[in-house]
Amino acid sequence: MAKILMATDGSEHAVKVADAAILLANALGAEISVITVTPVSHMAPDLVALYQEQMEQGAREILEEAKSYFAARGLEVETIHKVGHPASVICETAEKGGFDLIVLGSRGLGKIKELLLGSVSNRVAHNARTSVYIVK
Question: What is the mean pLDDT of residues 9-19?
Fold first, then answer.
């Protein structure tokens, strides 16, 4: 059975990404896993614990919403929460987990910001050894 890894940040655009993943899963007879990645913190050490707790709670909420969204459409999904640099973690998870496809949304950065900062989807598209489907 094919395996799809859908990355989400819980944004409104994530619904479009989920719908695309559902279409692909149904067409391919694939199972879906949903991942969200808490970015690495560069805060002062005394704030890191508070930040981590808040980010982990946010990640749990994002994944529960995703799980409910898929369940309402008749699909059971595995959820994954990891901490690190999002693009790197998504690529690594896809490779180690034997996923056939990564599905994620494009990030609406302006041309200048994207040039300076890049985006998670851009980095995943260029660095993943797995096929990538970017939803606009």
Answer: 91
∠63-1-106 over CA atoms, to 5°? 45
Helix (H, G, I), strand (E, B) or coil at 91: helix
Q: Tell me, what amino acid is at 125?
A: A
Q: Kindly report whether the global pTM for this prediction surpasses the value 0.85.
A: yes
List of residues 6+ apart from 90 with CB closer than 8 A: 5, 7, 35, 37, 102, 104, 120, 124, 128
Distance CA 32, CA 8 (A): 12
> What is the percent of the chain where pLDDT is above 70?
85
Tokens (6 digits) for 100: 């056939």
Is residue 23 very low, low, confident or very high in pLDDT (cuts 50, 70, 90)? very high
Among 91, 85, 6, 92, which Cα is nearest to 38's? Answer: 85
Which residue is it, tokens 């990538």?
132
Burial 4-40 (b: 16+ CB within 10 A, else e): bbbbbbeeebbeebbebbbebbeeeebebbbbbbbee
